[in-house]
Design goal:
single chain, about 400 residues, alpha/beta, Immunoglobulin-like, Rossmann fold, 2 domains, 5-stranded antiparallel sheet, globular, Mycobacterial_A85_antigen, Enterochelin esterase, Ig_E-set
Amino acid sequence: MADPLVEKLSTGEWSPERFRRHLKETGAPLVERVSADEVEVTFVDEPGDDAMVTLSVVIGPRAGFNPIAGEFAPVAGTPFRVLTLRMRSDLRFSYMFVRHGPTGESVRVPDPFNPPPRFSECSVERFSGASVAALPDAAPLPWLDQAEARPAQAAETAVLASQLLGDERRVWVSMPPGEFPDGSALPFVIHLDGTPDHSAPSVRDALVRAGLVRPCVVVLVSQPAPRRDKELLCNPAFSRMLVQELLPWLHHRYPLSRDPGDVALAGESFGGLCAGWTALHHPTTFGNAILQSPSCGYHPDLTWGTGAAELLRRSPVPTLIADCLAAETAPIRVFHDVGELESSNTHSRWLDHVLTAKGYDTLYREFAGGHDYAWWRGIFADALLWCFPFSSVDRSQV
């Protein structure tokens, strides 16, 4: 079924100029409800005469953009190409268009009628700069909306030199709104895969202004691309760097609490794996772990393949889960979210069962989407509310 506006375009009732103006004013993609819990979503591109266009979305087995079968169809007599898909009405997802040239070259671009939102650039190149669609019944992310409308001031930047790792990296430190004397003891969150324009400080500011979380410092730690995969995969040396070098460096410069209950380590994907594993092994330093779609199926000996050898393969228990099972219950609190449509959710559910059975204080959530910053940016607000809620006692001291 064609979208009603595309129908008007194809019959000539609307000119291409009017259709283009409507898209720029109201946004894309076009959405038409077809049942109580399904919609038809029409994506529109204007790629030029020689290009063939396909769609890629961050939902599917690939930790990145998954290609959708079928190409955009031309709308006769116009420069537009369209693709209509039936979808669950509660999805939120990042997506890109792939324009294929006549000689086989291709380029990935955001939706020209739905520009990437603020905070769309991230440390992992393949996720950066995507458009985001929030379908009619998607759970709202109000604190992200406020963060996008009123971003935090630029964070202080510095270079941390590590003797343990023999390298250096950028660190950005964002103080909460207000004035804090040197004798303060502010809670803080260290966020892995940091960038100077990360959403976390702005989400924090929105919550602090609303009086819902304690004023907390956000520390963003960069992961240099060539070393990221090695650093974040349950690496004892990297975890020691955080504890023995980054923490003293921060305490020397900022009025931070030394209570482990006031310290959170956060990350997404590999970063979430590192946050959970590091907190488990250093509970006297990190009293809170924020795991967003953690790669908790990781094990260094785990390989994938097909063929007869698979019939004899014995898969080891993933590292983070195995270590949780083997260790005494640590005094850490765990916030854990994952997309119900990403391939890692089986391991996330497994990890949550282990943590719950061992008596951890944990909050586990699944969202209607994939391995996606479109959700992580907003749900980070719920993690801060879990870690550092502004209690009545806190209010009385303001």
